Amino acid sequence: MLTLPAVAANVSCTALLVLAPDGRCLWSNVAAGRLGVRPDELPLARVEPGGPAVEVPWPAAEHATRWLQVCCHGVDSDGQPLRVYEVRDVSAERRERERGRNHRWRLARIEQLAKVGTWEWNVATGEVVWSDVLLQMFGLPPGTTLDYPSYRQLVHPDDIGLIERTLETALANAAPFSYTHRMHLPDRATIRVFECYGEVVTGATGAPERVLGTAHDITAMRRAQDELTRLAERDPLTDLPNRRALLARLDNLLASGGGRSGALLLIDIDNFKDINDVHGHAVGDDVLRVLARLLVRHLPAGTVLGRLGGDEFAVVLPEATAGGALAVAEGLCNAAVRSPVPLVDAGLRVTLSIGAASLTPGDTRDVALAHADLALYEAKNAGRNRARLYLPEQYRHAVQRVNVVARVRSALDERRMRLDAQPIIDLLTGEVVSHELLIRLRDGREPELAPADFLPTVERDDLIGELDRWVVATATAALADPAAAAAGTRFDVNISARSLESPGFGDWVVGRLRAAGVEARRLGLEVTETAAITNVAAVRNLAGTLRDAGCRLSLDDFGAGFGSFAYLKHLPFSTVKIAGDFVRQADRGGADPVLIDAVVRAAHGLGMRTVAESVDRDALVPALRRLGVDAGQGYHLGRPVPLDVLLNRVPDDGPVALDAPIRHPDH
Q1: What beta strand segments (E) does 291-339 contain?
Q2: Which of 92, 236, 263, 510 could form a disulfide linkage to 320, CB 3.0–4.6 angstroms apart?
Q3: Taking Cα atoms as reference points, which of 388, 246, 407 lies closest to residue 313?
Q4: How far apart are the first and last CA of the chain?
């Protein structure tokens, strides 16, 4: 009797075909008719009894294709071997499988394109399933079995705690989570950075069942961010912390409080502008780079050196005392002197001026910088190439300087500056050959300030350039006065080193004279010897402009500084004014008459006139005549009088008009 497989017999949707050994169909069920299958049309030869089921395509209506699953069972019927074939329509199942495969393929492709991998953690079993893309990001082959302990071995040790705390909190609150961590690849030489997001899936009771997560490889992004951060905080020329980073470090030190000590150094390269002007900005950049490396080598551990800008550096010294900070600063000055900056043909010796300030509880950044800057000012004022420590009296001096500058500024704005005129007398004829105009502050305020009280301070401020132009403009307006023009009056005015360095100053002077209709020969400019020898190129340029126009240029206080006769050869002055230190004892023998004689001979030989300053005694006049001095100036020959008195006019409180726009001295 024929016995059909139990499983198949109970499935009404399964077609059953019983075939004899010769292939004849001995029996089929109703489902076979519904499926429309016939033994001669099915590839039954591919299906072995007891073997795996085979899926075959089968034509359907409207040229569609169905998929049939065929399996075979061998049975015995009264000693006759038969084959029973089960045939099922598995088209729907196949479509589901295809959809699943397509979904997984698309997911894998999306992960690859987005550089995002996925993972799933079964909370109950502890099993973690990683996507193939994520495994590849980890440097592992697709399909690798990776349990949590193995994964934990790859995570950077410093980040394990962060991950576990984050997951613990997420499980406790059933909340979304995120974290970023570093991970070693299996070679242990490569570290990658992953940004992870995830959520907790809970069951019906609200208990966590699964955790789903993503991991995005942000290594390149993090590297770019780190580089941008570095660039934002580093000086591109020296690779030191820039102003922003250095001041942040100073803020942190001041904010730490607790009575901790510390100090700040401000470092300035002496005469750096001259280095750029003489050797070029490329050499100036080399100086900055070399000094940056030098300073780092000679600073104690734990300090922060940065570049504030230009030629100015700063050092934050945590835990340093005032004495310790000054010792560090002096060590840096000495190191710079001992280490010339190499050039193509020689070494360039560079010196530093350094201001040191202790940091005290309650100080702000601005206070610390102001104190160190005041100490730096003292170092420069003392002659450069040295360090100075901030002391409270420096603040008082600074206040005094600020008050002096403000007072001069107010006097200039309120038309309270005045000029006195002191005659310069020809020693042979007794005639007045010119008048030197001397600036005076007459603002009615106490205490009264003589020129020696305010000019040195103003000369260190940009105001000096404006003051110089006011003097020249006032002198030009006075020379244009009809009475002064008829008398052929001449004036000489002093100009500062700041105006001397201003490229457009000479053209501005000539332009003022031409606009006022004043002959250029009636105005002379005086430059001190000290300013001249430190600005030789600027003197040449100014002298050339004035000489071409017909103006005079005098070398003032010759012999008072560190000059020599060599400068007379190279600088085209029209007049040399002999310093009063040589003149006061010229009638009493000694070295002074010898020096005056040498100056006169040199000046006359170069076509220059000579003027003796500080002629305050009658006996000096014949002595100077015998030495060949052309003219003299001093209280014996004529005291200064207000310019308005000289011109016999009422003082004019109106402004001396300056042509607009006024070019800044540095332009």
Answers
A1: 304-309, 312-318
A2: 263
A3: 246
A4: 120
- Quick count: other Cβ atoms within 10 Å of Cβ 58? 19
What are the distances in angstroms from CA 403 to CA 88, 374, 382, 417, 419? 106, 15, 21, 16, 22
Sheet of 352-358, strand order: 304-309, 312-318, 262-269, 352-358, 386-389
Taking the C-alpha atoms of residue 286 and residue 131, their distance in angstroms, rounded to an integer, is: 54
What pLDDT is recorded for position 63?
Answer: 64
Q: What percent of the chain has pLDDT over 70?
A: 88
* Alpha carbon distance 497, 577 (integer Å): 17
List, in order, residues 6 or more apart from 536 with CB less than 8 Å away. 567, 570, 571
Tokens of 591: 């070295």
- Residue at token pair 């995005």: 216
d(CA 92, CA 478): 111
| CB contact at 8 A, 318 and 253 | yes
Residues 460 and 422 sit within 8 Å (Cβ to Cβ) = no
Given a cut of 50, whether residue 21 has pLDDT beyond it is yes
Nearest alpha carbon to residue 580 among 498, 636, 640, 536? 636
φ, ψ (nearest 5 deg) of residue 29 = -95, 180
CA distance 229 to 508: 48
Name the token pair of 315. Answer: 């050092």
**pLDDT tens per residue across span 423-432:** 999 999 999 9
Beta bridge partners of residue 71, listed in sequence order: 86
What is the model's pLDDT at position 542? 87
Q: Is the peptide bond before 593 cis (omega within 30 degrees of 0)?
A: no
Cα distances from 146 to residues 63, 142, 152, 320, in angstroms, run: 47, 11, 10, 53
Parallel, antiparallel or unpaired: strands 191-202 and 177-184 = antiparallel
Instruction: Indicate the length of the chain as a whole number.
Output: 667
* Residues contacting 370, CB < 8 A, separation 6+: none
Nearest to 248 by CA among 260, 228, 258, 233: 233
Q: What is the pTM of this model?
A: 0.48
| Residue found under tokens 């030190």 | 253
Strand pairing category for 609-612 and 575-578:
parallel
> In the 8-state DSSP scheme, what is residue 63?
G
Please name which of 292, 458, 262 lies closest in space to residue 363, comparing C-alpha atoms: 262
C-alpha–C-alpha distance, residues 624 and 109, integer Å: 103
481-519 per-position pLDDT tens digit: 998 999 999 999 999 888 888 888 999 999 999 999 999
| Bigger pLDDT: 362 vs 357 | 357
Reduced to 3 DSSP states, what percent helix, strand and coil does the chain have, rounded to the nearest 5? 45, 25, 30
Question: Can the peptide bond before residue 57 be classed as cis, meaning omega within 30 degrees of 0?
Answer: no
Q: How far apart are CA 437 and CA 423, in angstroms?
A: 9
518 close to 492: Cβ distance less than 8 angstroms = no
Confidence class of residue 394 from pLDDT cuts 50, 70 and 90?
A: low
Cα dist. 327→380, 387, 635 in Å? 18, 9, 50
Pairwise CA distance, residues 399 & 96, whole Å:
88
Could you check whether the bond before residue 661 is cis, i.e. omega within 30 degrees of 0?
yes
Q: What is the DSSP letter of 544?
A: H
Q: In terms of DSSP H, where are the helices of 204-316?
A: 219-233, 243-256, 272-279, 281-297
